[in-house]
Amino acid sequence: MSDATERTPAERRAANEEQRRAALARIGGGAVSVLVVDDHPDNRDLLKRRLERLGIAHVGMAVDGREAVDMIRAQPFDLVFLDVMMPNMNGYEVLERLRDENRLADLPVVMISALTEMDSVVRCIELGAEDYLAKPFNPTLLRARLYALLEKKRLRDAVRENLRRLESDLEAARSSQLGMVPAAMDPRGAEWPVGIRAQLEPARQVGGDLIDFFPLGAGHCCFLLGDVSGKGPAAALFMARAWGTLRSAAPLWAERTDDQAGVAAMMAAVNQRMSEANPAFEFLTLFLGVLDVVTGRVVYSNAGHPAPYRMRSGEAPLPLPLVGGMPVGIDERVAHASGSIDLMPGDRIVVYSDGVTEAMNTAKEFYGDEYLAQVLDQVRDADPAALVAAVRQSVAAFALGEEQSDDIAILALGWQVGG
Amino acid sequence: MRIVEEPFGSGVVVKPVGRLDSTTAPIAEQAIRDAMARSGHRLLLDMGELDYVSSAGLRVVLAAAKQTSAASGKFLVCDLKPQVRQVFELSGFTRIIAIVATRAEAEL
Questions:
Q1: Parallel, antiparallel, or unpaired for β A309-311 and A348-352?
Q2: Which of A30, A69, A343, B39 matches a 20 to 30 Å C-alpha distance to B57?
Q3: Could you read off the pLDDT of A66-114 as tens digits, one per residue?
């Protein structure tokens, strides 16, 4: 048995060489650069030669701590071997300097020290050094420490790079998503007496809440607010698809027989398209309203969304009766009913997502429907901008100290406000 | 979120405890998917100790209903607390999900 596994010195050398190559490939090969800091020329040269033999292409050398700090500031190193006792600036001071400059998280430092100086090694580890190597150098230990630390650094760098890339991708997605929400709609005289303000705030970088509003021809204004089940990137993609589908369903309005049929046709088109190719079983609660800018009649359909409020000066907020149907995207065969409500000049409508009413405070209590009605009741006469601000601020004040757990969307529309 | 699972009739009963929201939904979805695979898509979801269901939680329930239906299995939900029932009603889920009052009334 032992005969079969016994190797000749040549075979052992070949196996070692193979191991060395594999290790070197893992840590990034010849691109690695290491800094040796020691005031004794013999120690420096010996360590440099050994490192080069281990495959490190770039070995920098510094004669004392001050030169080491200057070099580390000027160029990137993957690893530093640092002596403790040196003139000008000793190893402790170098570590303190690197720590103060927040460099130790990216730069592993290995202390070079005599075995009799264990106390100083401990102090260096406490200051942020990763490891130590005893003088005189043992080639096997040097190799083991070198490869282990470089591999650890490479993995850490890769994790950080992935995280950075992910964050920048999500940040781009966020601005693209927020760009889908129109900023505002302002009234234009008697011809267009409609003003809208809205606010969309994903809980994470991107979210599943949806806000949109746009004119339908010269006489009507479409406004909608939706909420995709879930949040984050998957919900955001579904939301973006719903947004595009809704916009492309808008031309159906021109073919309507009456306003109720127009709203129902838009809902049906969106529901049908969102129910197709939906393998993750996502769905969207959606309030879709169309205001006749001349008569003030709002025709709407509510697909499983919290009821919006009608605000009228001197009256308590009135939840819009629930007319509509199931959330969008669940079943392409269900039809959505539509209802209507007649506005008086100065009336406003507030639509919101459950990120408002299901906001939680530190005692894990919900903001709730009743509280929203109370908040709105206190700003009965506010214009759309002030309504959005009042709701948003009440959520912020309520959930003070708690992380925002769900996407928040608020839209307020005013008809003939102040005119 | 804690999930209790035990045999029930010809299938299994899965009982999530706590809140079913976007944080816990992936855990519940995986547990339900595993339970469906083991039970030949015969599943009772006991909501007796579920205090809250968000839209992400509804999606998990919907996925279970659609998957069992596609596999010609059976999916029932029982014992909804009033606040959870309200969420089901508002979203129209009471019309598409088979709901029974208690576990005793469920048949798998």
A1: antiparallel
A2: B39
A3: 999 999 999 999 999 999 999 889 999 999 999 999 999 889 999 998 8
- The number of C-beta contacts closer than 8 angstroms across A and B is 53
Residue A2 has pLDDT above 50, yes or no: no
Instruction: State the Cα–Cα distance between residues A410 and B47, nearest whole angstrom.
Output: 31
Pairwise CB contact (< 8 Å): B54 & A406: yes
pLDDT of res. A4: 52
CB distance A229–B90 less than 8 Å? no
Residues whose CB is less than 8 angstroms from the CB of residue A239 and which lie 6 or more positions away in sequence, other chains included: A177, A207, A208, A209, A210, A226, A228, A284
Considering the segment(s) B2-105 as one domain, its CATH architecture is 2-Layer Sandwich (3.30)
**ipTM exceeding 0.95?**
no
Find, in chain A, the residue whose alpha carbon is nearest to that of B94: A326
Q: Which residues of B touch A (CB under 8 A)?
A: 21-23, 25, 54-56, 58-59, 62-63, 66, 90-93, 95-96
Q: Which helix or strand (DSSP H or E) is residue B32 part of? A: helix B25-39
The architecture of the domain spanning A2-171 is: 3-Layer(aba) Sandwich (3.40)
Please write the tens of the pLDDT for every residue from A149-183.
999 888 988 999 999 999 898 888 888 888 989 98
> Does CATH place domain A182-415 in 3.60.40.10?
yes
Q: Closest CB to B59: pick one of A283, A306, A354.
A: A283
Which residue on chain B is closest to A323 by alpha carbon? Answer: B90
CB A87 within 8 Å of CB A37: no
The answer to whether the A2-171 and A182-415 domains have the same CATH topology is: no
Residues A308 and A351: beta-carbon distance below 8 Å: yes
